[in-house]
Amino acid sequence: MYKIMYTNDGDPYCTRVPGVDSILAETDGTIDIEYNCRQGHCGRCILKLLNGDVMHQDHATDLRKGEILACRSRPVSDIRVSKSSQDPKA
Q: What is the pTM of this model?
């Protein structure tokens, strides 16, 4: 079981999750992460990985260094993430 610490314009939120398909699935709505497609195409769930490691599945979204998709990333250690400044519509 890994710990996910999420910070977004306020106090950090921390949850412990079992290792399943993705960060988005693991948090099951307990962390407010925007998403749309859940398949790595839209880019709405881009997060900045601040600490820790994830296994990233195939996706069609262009990412900057240090960014991950919540819908396509599975933690392989405790992680710390924050909302990305990247606009998926840009």
A: 0.76
Question: How many structural domains compose the chain?
Answer: 1
| Whole-Å CA distances, 25 to 35, 63, 89 | 11, 20, 23
Classify residue 31 as exposed, middle or buried by CB count within 10 Å of its CB (0-12, 13-18, 19+): buried
CATH number of the domain encompassing residue 14? 3.10.20.30
pLDDT in tens, 50-61: 999 998 888 878
Q: Is residue 89 a part of any domain in this protein? A: no
Domain range for 31 is 2-83
Token pair 């709405």: residue: 44
Please name every residue paired with 19 in a beta bridge, in sequence order, or none if there are none: none
Q: What is the biggest distance separating any 2 CA atoms in the chain, rounded to whole angstroms?
A: 35
Are the CB atoms for 46 and 85 separated by under 8 Å? no
Length of the chain: 90
SS3 86: coil
